[in-house]
Amino acid sequence: IAGITQAPTSQILAAGRRMTLRCTQDMRHNAMYWYRQDLGLGLRLIHYSNTAGTTGKGEVPDGYSVSRANTDDFPLTLASAVPSQTSVYFCASRGTGDEQFFGPGTRLTVL
Amino acid sequence: AQSVAQPEDQVNVAEGNPLTVKCTYSVSGNPYLFWYVQYPNRGLQFLLKYITGDNLVKGSYGFEAEFNKSQTSFHLKKPSALVSDSALYFCAVRGSSWGKLQFGAGTQVVVTP
After folding, report:
1. Could you give the CA distance from residue B50 to residue B98 in angstroms, rounded to a whole number?
2. Using CB atoms, which residue from A41, A44, A102 is nearest to B44?
3. Which residues of A touch B101 (CB under 8 A)?
4. What residues form DSSP beta bridges with B34?
5. What is the full DSSP assignment across B18-83?
């Protein structure tokens, strides 16, 4: 069982470019989340999805969009990347026991 | 609004000594409290949670946490720290909003041999 996979592992991106971070889970969890991790700020919620077909905004949604066409996939898109979006991005899903399972992360650098 | 405070950026402890990582929270309603650990270049891993019941919660790798409602705290503890416990620890709280966690800034634990 892979759990949650994220791709790419890391990416260097020119400002203004469009980028999609991929997230796939094989646990059939309904709820999924995207966080960004920045030093000294912990994890901040970008967007979430309680079930396939629905999404919601988190704490820091500006500049990001998500879709949830099916249970397994939850991609995060940066329409026009800016340097302040340089961060480590984590995808997570919520299990039946209420704990969240995290992917390995994507390290994104926007120049 | 909900919030979590981890007052220590770093905790240093010698191997074999007790380890405590502090966490206080603010939330409307009954709190759902969690601890996660992050090793270098890895995602977060679940350690333990408090939902209801006994105030002392036992989790993975010998960790435990004590829920104190009057002090709004949920400190993480381990009786005897190991070098391999060196990692970044996050406290998180969920209140009335379904499924959305609020994370603290994290505490770096350094265990020296």
Report:
1. 16
2. A102
3. 45, 100
4. B49, B92
5. -EEE--EEE-SSS-EEEEEEE-TTS-EEEEEEESSS-SEEE-GGG-EEEEETTTTEEEEEESS--G
Q: Which amino acid does the sequence have at A85?
A: Q
> Of B3, B90, B101, B107, which to mutate for an interface test with A (greatest number of A Cβ within 10 Å)?
B101
CA A107 – CA B74 distance, rounded (Å): 30
Q: What is the pLDDT of residues A99-111, one digit of tens each?
A: 899 999 999 999 9
Nearest to A49 by CA among A80, A72, A26: A72
Please state the rounded mean pLDDT for residues B7-25: 97
Residue B84 is classified by DSSP as G
Cβ atoms of A83 and A96 closer than 8 Å = no
What is the CA angle A10-A21-A43, rounded to 5? 80
CB of B44 less than 8 A from some CB of A = yes
> What mean pLDDT do residues B70-91 have?
96
Instruction: Tell me which residue of B105, B101, B109 sits closest to B33, measured CA to CA.
Output: B101
Query: Which residue in A has a C-alpha nearest to residue B93's C-alpha?
Result: A99
- The encoded tokens of residue B46 equal 């679940």
Tell me the residue type at B105. A
Burial A23-61 (b: 16+ CB within 10 A, else e): bbbeeebbbbbbbbbeeeebbbbbbbbbeeeebeebebb
Tokens standing for residue A52: 């396939």
Q: Reply yes or no on whether the pLDDT at B21 is more than 90.
A: yes
